[in-house]
Amino acid sequence: MSTTGRFTIPSEENFAQETQRLAELWGADAVRNSDGTHLDESVLSLGKKIYSAYFPTRAHNEWITLHMDETPQVYLLSNRVLAVGEDVVINLMESFYEEQLSVNYDADPHRYWEVIDRTTGEVVDPINWSVDKESGTVTIHSAQRMHEYTVSFLAYIIWDPVEMYNHLTNDWGDKEHEIPFDIYHEATREFVFDTFHKWLEDNPHVDVVRFTTFFYQFTLLFDNKHREKVVDWFGSACTVSPKALDDFEKQYGYRLRAEDFIDEGSYNSAWRIPRKPQRDWNDFLTTFVRANVKRLADDSHAHGKEAMMFLGDQWIGTEPYKDGFDELGLDAVVGSVGDGTTLRMISDIPGVRYTEGRFLPYFFPDTFYEGNDPSIEGLDNWRKARRAILRSPISRMGYGGYLSLAAKFPKFVDTVTHIADEFRTIHEYTHGVAAEPALTVAIVNCWGKMRSWMAYTVAHALPNKQTHSYYGILEALSGMRVDVRFISFDDILNNGIDDDIDVIITGGPVDTAYSGGDIWDNPRLSEIIREWVYMGGAFVGVGEPSSRDKNGRFFQLADILGVDEERFHTLSVDKYFPKTVESHEHFITADIPQGCEIDFGEPILNTYPINEDLTVLSARSGEIQLAANEYGQGRGVYLSGLPYCAINARLLERILFYASHKEDKYEAWSSTNPECEVAHYPAEKLFCVINNTDVVQTTDVKRADGKVETIELAPSSLVWRKE
Q1: Is the pTM of this model over 0.85?
Q2: What whole-number distance in Å separates Cα of residue 178 and Cα of residue 60?
Q3: Which listed residue (35, 263, 313, 559) is catalytic?
Q4: Which residues touch 44 (CB under 8 Å, ≥6 apart)?
Q5: For the segment 575-596, what is each residue's pLDDT rounded down to a tens digit?
Q6: Active-site annotation holds for 313
Q7: Which domains does the chain have, with CATH numbers?
Q8: Which of 304-307's residues contact partners 24+ apart within 8 Å by CB, and which partners?
Q9: What is the DSSP letter of 363?
Q10: How far is CA 548 from CA 268, 510, 532, 557, in A?
């Protein structure tokens, strides 16, 4: 097996000898610089492919300090203030970090800001409020006593959020703050392209321009205690400017309000049901961003260099899953791999020649410190990603950060050596082809394809208490023997359900983009799904699927699921629960160990059977966690939630096979041990078994011809077998 290639190593100044040593150990064929570092001439002469991080909209304070009105801007929401008299004074920056953000007084506040009575929701007439620049306050006159008021105001972003994070994390002390700039302004835009063109000419040694990233940072705002205040990896809050707002009005025929960005304090979270202004702004922004990304890619190619996009930092407006991304001319996309879901977010991107994963841990002092063992995180990260790689391979892998830190940990160095070799072996055995799927599964929400592998996320690969019950579904699917596609409710309304889809999964909390909200007011949606399931389709609902309180139902597809949620209107109507089926008695729960209590995540309260024919597989404290329902020739399955773990991934896999009436196809190329998974490559006449734990595991694998093989796997190992 090859011990070289498909690996990118980070390096830094004055570290050439160790870079060469580690590059040989890890089989690196490419070397990159990290934020705040440069590559020595001796590193450049190692004969490796050279990646250079390039930041189009920062690191040129000599320009932007002369054009401070051309930094990116953001609408901020002040604290709510209670009116106890006729005048209400609101301190604009009271809860924001003034080293990051500065109020924009240059554009007319009475044209671009909004003061809102948050008790009534009414916009306060601009004649009834005034701005004091000296004190940084807004005074509301003739306020309604005991009403709460807010100001939505424009602010300049005066410290690049990512450089700021790196600065604070690495204690860069007196290093000059890098000020970002907004290419929507013509003079700054031309400066960016002229500067890039000159950089290309001055750096003939660079093979790959690693754009980190392009123009607009995802929403990342800090409070006055230097803590993260608003973090939304999909947020486009930091993309506004008076000029862009005015141009939008000319193009779309209506004017956006400050509230269209503030969105009642949600800052247009991807969890909110997307509204027309939000969708239109996304289209407007994407059109602008992509046109300028193409200019950068074309210029890179004209100088004989590849153009690579980092899926992170200033990625907003690129929208890799939106139609047309393949027209930008980018050669590659690289992204941070936090788990299987984020691996698939990178590997499934269409329209580029190759994809690359930047694995964890990042070589920063918050992980590489005396007494810690980074190899634990390294192997955990690899195990999560590996199962997804088998289903949708990335072309390359690597790490980021400061190599001098990683070199101090020999055990970690050995761990990466093993991971890199195993990654290359997967490619050599499979030739980069995905393992054979057994089913096709569609995830349905308001966003559809545009948010492929991005659903249920707030911050990149960091599910929290409110999201993990849903995010776990994606993580389980990321390494499962299924094809996964993402479609929207509108896709179903406009096009129906594709014939090759075996199972539909939908769900999320009520009134979110993932459960659908008022989309269920259209009866046609229910009609299409009911018809499809009734004729043999499979429908899995999670959390509060199809939730919309109307016509005597909360789950609008309760008839398919056999489950609804009590909303305290029918407490006088008794609910009767059928006896729970023992786990060993049903196909879905057959792999649940005796005495094991399934983790369904955060509870969905007051769910109950709507008929006594429902097959209840788990019910606790008067709520349904798991149930199966016959519906015509099809089946519905209800899940209250499913955080990711091996047992839960196995449970979901069995749900999918059961719901689609394909139980007879389940055993072939499956593992009897949920901690192990099997990937089958019929074209290569190979299969592999992976151990997703850090302890020894044993499993039986049943082949398609019925033969059973018992395999023992070392911790974290992968074993190949011929058919």
Answers
A1: yes
A2: 7
A3: 313
A4: 50, 205
A5: 999 999 998 899 999 999 888 8
A6: yes
A7: 7-57+185-220+272-430 (3.20.20.80), 439-665 (3.40.50.880), 670-722 (2.60.40.1180)
A8: 305/200, 305/206, 305/207, 305/208, 305/209, 306/207, 306/208, 306/209, 306/331, 306/332, 307/208, 307/209, 307/211, 307/331, 307/332
A9: B
A10: 21, 7, 21, 10
